[in-house]
Write a structure and sequence with these properties.
Elements lengths: L15 E12 L6 E12 L3 E5 L6 H8 L7 E6 L2 E2 H7 L4 E4 L11 H12 L3 H15 L14 H13 L5 E5 L7 H16 L3 E6 L2 H5 L3 E6 L2 E6 L1 H5 L6 E5 L7 H14 L3 E7 L2 E6 L7 H7 L2 E3 L4 H8 L32 E10 L2 E11 L4 E5 L6 H8 L7 E6 L2 E2 L4 H5 L2 E4 L11 H11 L4 H14 L15 H13 L5 E5 L7 H16 L3 E5 L3 H4 L4 E6 L2 E6 L1 H6 L9 H15 L3
Parallel strand pairs: 3-8, 3-9, 6-7, 7-8, 17-22, 17-23, 20-21, 21-22
Antiparallel strand pairs: 1-2, 1-4, 4-5, 9-10, 11-13, 11-14, 12-13, 15-16, 15-18, 18-19, 23-24
Length: about 600
């Protein structure tokens, strides 16, 4: 625990729906015994939304499962509406609705078939069942899609169906385990509006998340870290502790080298003693100082153009968990970095990624239409769009995983359609869904990918220790990959994609579901790769992350509807003062819908 970590509040103001007292949960036995929860205590009020916040492996899902009655705690007590969980479920088995983190419905069944199955499991029958279906389908806006297979729904629609099934039986407590993961900003807002409406109707909702912008919307939060309570109370209470320590340093350089200069400035502040967080925010840098920052640091920030700004929950959270990892990234300092292994062909003088009128049809359906853009060396280019907009189709064409119906594409000067295998040797690819082998060790996965990319064992063994240490993977190299927490799986996937020092890097939602500290580490390494000359193409649903992009293409209905820097996209929203990138994302889509009605 650091000096900035907050002691947990004793209770929230309202009457408690959930009371946790010294809750412990251990897995395994003997030397293999591991504590997932370490004496968690909190009081969660009835009739409102509470955020359960924490990084991967902090204990959020374990606590959710205890509250759902799927496990019993090793120690301590869990009471819901004044009684133990098992007793509540005996008295009123439908009083708790639970939506797990992973999509838990049947993908080969239709929307209606899933509802009917879960209604039968809940014992909801007769006329009341049909009336409930009508209300839930209207509430979730799924009524037009009752015959569609669940596996063919977009990410947001899957989450809405999951909530609908969890609501069968009219529960008093709704448990949502990371409902916003993998969902675009527009769908996340729709989900939030749905849950707010439920809360206004008197339902108690526990919303688990690793996203601090989601947590900030909740009236109260319970923050976990390493299985223990980090903070419990209103998020504003924690946010206030960062007041006077958050600054925005605006970038005055708008020339061709602005992107790399910006990242050099980020690296400078990241390494500075007394800085607990630093991140790119459009053309500006957001810098957060420690409460015990060295004398003169605030004056230096102000002298370099820093302006005090209101703190966010994320700013305070980073202080509570000890701040950013100040170790420098090894990427960019390795021999041959971002240009392939020593002895590789010289990089092309033109763009490193070229998409020229890429189109992909599936029967009569056009998934991507006339997609064109270029990405230069040292540039981060973002593909943003709602679920089902055509991002993944475009991404897969550029990776050589899907052949376009028409158009052409090149990577590092090599035509993907004519010399696909040669082009793939020049790129690194991190898939949206975990694509490594779960039943072998992390080290064995690394060896397989090194062989696939043509990396010699000698070169692999020289690079691996430095990269594994930087990504905090060294203690896990002998662990079976499938047993790793999500954050470590993501780190392992990044290592496998970058071990051969590719000049082009494709990242498909690289930090989906991971916490803010892990995201900071990812972008430190990605920035180091681009500073060494790599071209990066990234898709993301997390708008704070998209601020790192030099340029963004917004894809909707299979076409690019807008291209520009993050600040340019925000500036086009003229009816809103100081819009966020999320605001701009939604505004561009809504404007396109108005101008191009279906």
């Amino acid at each position: 625990m650091t000096t900035e970590q907050a002691a947990p509040a004793q209770a929230f103001e309202n009457a408690a729906a959930i009371v946790l007292e010294g809750v412990r949960m251990d897995f395994g036995s003997g030397k293999q015994r591991k504590a997932a929860l370490r004496g968690v205590s909190a009081s969660i009020p009835a009739g409102r939304i509470t955020g359960l916040v924490g990084p991967d492996a902090s204990g959020k899902t374990t606590l959710m499962r205890l509250l759902a009655g799927l496990m019993a705690p090793t120690g301590g007590s869990v009471r819901i509406f004044g009684v133990p969980v098992d007793e509540l479920l005996r008295r009123a088995p439908n009083s708790i609705g639970y939506m797990p983190q992973r999509f838990g419905l049947y993908e080969d069944l239709s929307v209606m078939a899933n509802l009917e199955l879960y209604a039968s499991l809940r014992g909801v029958e007769g006329a009341a069942r049909e009336a409930l279906f009508r209300r839930l389908l209207a509430f979730t806006a799924l009524a037009p899609f009752t015959e569609r297979l669940a596996g063919r729904l977009s990410g947001g629609m899957k989450q809405k169906l999951g909530i609908a099934c969890a609501l069968l039986g009219a529960p008093r407590l709704l448990l949502l385990d990371e409902p916003g993961v993998g969902v675009d900003p527009q769908s996340r807002r729709e989900l939030w509006s749905m849950v707010q409406e439920l809360s206004k109707g008197g339902m108690t909702v526990l919303w688990s998340t690793s996203y601090l912008d989601e947590a900030a919307r909740c009236p109260g939060v319970v923050m976990l870290d390493n299985g223990a309570t980090l903070f419990a109370g209103p998020p504003q209470e924690l946010t206030r502790r960062a007041e006077g320590r958050v600054f925005l340093i605006r970038d005055r350089d708008t020339g061709a080298e602005a992107g790399n200069a910006h990242r050099e400035e980020l690296a400078y502040w990241t390494m500075k003693p007394g800085v607990i967080d630093a991140l790119i925010q459009g053309s500006s840098l957001r810098v957060v100082l420690a409460a015990d920052a060295p004398p003169g640091l605030k004056e230096e920030v102000l002298a370099r153009g820093g302006e005090p700004v209101a703190p966010r929950l994320e700013d305070a959270y980073m202080g509570a968990v000890g701040g950013i990892d100040k170790r420098p990234s090894p990427y960019g300092r390795l021999p041959g970095a971002a240009g392939g292994a020593p002895g590789a062909a010289s990089p092309p003088s033109g763009p490193r990624i070229v998409a020229n009128r890429l189109t992909r049809k599936f029967g009569d359906f056009v998934a991507a239409r006339d997609i064109s853009f270029t990405v230069g060396a040292g540039e981060i280019f973002g593909l943003l769009g709602p679920n089902g907009a055509g991002k993944s189709t475009t991404f897969r064409m550029l990776c050589g995983l899907l052949r376009p119906t028409s158009g052409d594409c090149a990577v590092d000067g090599v035509d993907l359609l004519r010399s696909g295998s040669a082009a793939r040797e020049r790129l690194g690819y991190m898939a949206q869904n975990f694509s490594l082998y779960p039943d072998i060790t992390a080290r064995e996965n690394i060896a397989i990918f090194a062989d696939l990319y043509g990396l010699s064992p000698r070169r692999r063994d020289a690079l691996l220790p430095r990269l594994a240490d930087a990504l905090d993977l060294t203690p896990w190299l002998k662990a079976r990959t499938g047993t790793l927490p999500l954050g470590l799986k993501k780190r392992l996937a990044l290592l496998c994609a970058t071990l051969h020092e590719p000049p082009v890097l494709f990242l498909d939602e690289p930090t989906s579901g991971v916490d803010v500290r892990t995201r900071r580490d990812f972008w430190k390494h990605i920035s180091a790769l681009t500073a060494a000359g790599a071209a990066v193409l990234v898709t993301t649903h997390f708008m704070e992350e998209a601020e790192y992009c030099d340029r963004i293409a917004l894809i909707y209905r299979g076409s690019i509807i807008s291209v520009g820097t993050p600040d340019e996209l925000k500036a086009e929203v003229t009816d809103m003062r100081d819009p966020t990138l999320e605001d701009a994302f939604i505004a561009h889509i809504e404007r396109y819908d108005r101008e191009h009605p279906i």
